[in-house]
Fold these 2 entries.
Entry 1:
Amino acid sequence: MEIIILPTPDEVGRVAAAKIASVVAKKPSAVVGLATGSSPQGIYADLRRRVRAGEISFAEARGFALDEYVGIPLEHPESYAAVIARDVVAPLGFDASRVRVPDGRAADLEFAAKEYDAAIRAAGGIDVQILGIGANGHIGFNEPTSSFASRTRIKTLAPSTRDANARFFDSPEQVPTHCMTQGLGTILEARELVLVAQGPTKAAAVAAAVEGPLSSFVPGSALQLHEHATVVVDEEAAAGLQIADYYRAAAGRSAN
Ligand code: F6R
């Protein structure tokens, strides 16, 4: 695993965006795994700058979102379908027909989840997956005790996740109770993982995911099983890391 510690959240966004941009520059038809929430906003902002500057184009790329709430109306501004359309598809110039979000409104949710996994495989698999991490260690909405072998499926959101996401809704009760999320096994099949975290509320989760034991209690620790995972964090999110000096030294060497 490569751990990159940077002074500010802006730099986290820029450095992580450079990783995504390099995949898309080499393969314009790349399949990009898309996270929502606050963490990847800096990535999307920097990618938008690169698109405007003509450095890269997402016109031929494909996208698969990590997750979606169950039962939320499609037109709700906080459905992940709406968020991905607003924050990713339009500003980055994706072709909307090449970007998918799990269908949290399907009549047969189990079938829709299986079909989503199959669609990722049919697209050739995800080339680069953007990830954030929850304060409880979740990635996607794989809450603690999610199996490392799990596939896209329905999960119950942890109370702490619903509390954290209440900021996007008018009242905490409006936060859906369930979601459809790519599984940890699905996420681990992506060819490259780029996880970003900023701020002190993520420090314990980052430390547990990066340096703690491999445990389904910390779903982010699944990254330890991946051959090509990068964790990009700011100083505050890095505060719990025991061997931060080593990561800094290693990053310095690779930059020379
Ligand atoms: C979002 C997702 C979640 C978030 C995590 C952190 O698609 O899958 O794992 O990345 O809950 O959320 P923020 O970034 O809002 O702190």
Entry 2:
Amino acid sequence: MHSVSSISDSNLFPYLRVQGEIDLSGQIEISGAKNSALVLMAASLLTEEPIHLSNVPKLTDIDVMAKLLSSIGANVNQISNELDIKTNGLSLSQNSLPYELVNALRASFVCIGPLLARFGEVKIPLPGGCRIGARPINEHIRGLRALGATVTFEGENVLAKTTNLRNKLIGTKIRLTCKSVGATETILMASILAEGKTTIENAAREPEIQDLANMLTKMGAKIKGAGTSTIIIEGVDHLKGCIHKVIPDRIEAGTFLIASAITRCPITIFPVIPKHLEAVLIKLQECGCLIKQTENTIKIIPGKTIYAVDITTMPFPGFPTDLQAPFMSLLSTAKGTSKIEETIFEKRMQHVGELQRMGAQIQLHDNIALIQGVNKLFATSLTGGDLRSSAAMVLAGLVAKGTSVIKGLSHLDRGYENFEKKLCNLGANIKRTEVKRPISNRKNTEKLESKMNVGSGSQVA
Ligand code: EPZ
């Protein structure tokens, strides 16, 4: 049985000390994709047979998902990067998921699809809004209703039920009104055991969806078109267990490529699927970086000068919203004026204020940032308000004059496996300190953290 320690120890106040102006060199090994692994864990709920996942990153978000599955009777065991899940112990009566866990990890809401498909009924807490935007679930619900489920809201819970005696969802055609990754995953998983054919139009095309479809296919599902805007699923009666390796994390990979560009030092990353990073590589090349790639490695050789570029975040294959904050750190040091427009999430510009405190020249108009590159950023005390902006702070700290102190690490630890260790292997000087808060200070610090939006319970993924 998986034992998960507390989501984070609120008595510890961890921070990083990042020394700036140090050259990096060498190679970095990229971990498995967090956003794939989380949904693959949810997909394990579709079968009674064992699932073995390899290349699963060790992250607090994975711990929370494991804890969530365990809470409804699954047996989850992670050793290093190998994860075994057995869900034969699940029972219908236990299928109400604990509020604290769904609330701590937004991605856990996708469990609604597989649980409904397997048991014909599920009760799951509403995931709520989060730091980077409201993140509604209307498309998930609309999709499940189209598949024949009744979906009602009871207090803070969503209750979904099939409506026939066979406890089956019924295949249909669903057109998403926005290219939602989560809604595509929910509907895909819900329709696998449905009667007949389901077509998802305007589906999200992210590599994590292709990874999910690949694993489901190994389990016996019949899926065509994953990775395109139209996914067609022929329902099957039963799914079996499988062994599956999680794809490399394209967002972690992109973050390290940006670390190279911001420090103007060449590095190599592996294993990666370069096709997953095309939009990012194009922008790095436009900035003046030379990119050399093989089938599963990317070497980046930044120019001495990084040039301004314009970026608009878009669903895959467009420029990913998850790399918007790290790229803004880079463009803060570019020659000329860049424009970044965030189109996916309405509150994903929280790093702007922190970068400005380092000397970055950024004007923000709603979700459009105009960045006039400066010659130097200056170290200060910084707080990452969400996962990707925490990474952006570390990257800015790598080139700033002086030593930056970076707080809000609960966010960083949700999504980057051994982040500072990997950078230190390239030569960076980053030290993690975890100080125990004196009891008398805890209340004040907690208040301060919640004011600064750096509490440990906030949702990102
Ligand atoms: C996934 O979130 C990722 N999380 C996010 O990763 C990523 O930023 C995001 O996709 C976009 O690429 C996981 O995979 C666990 P969406 P998700 O549904 O699925 C709107 C990270 O840093 N929308 O594709 O929740 C929504 O408001 C993160 O690792 C609706 O309107 O994102 C947003 O504007 C955070 N109705 C847009 O779609 C819905 O029912 C895209 O959201 C659902 C979404």
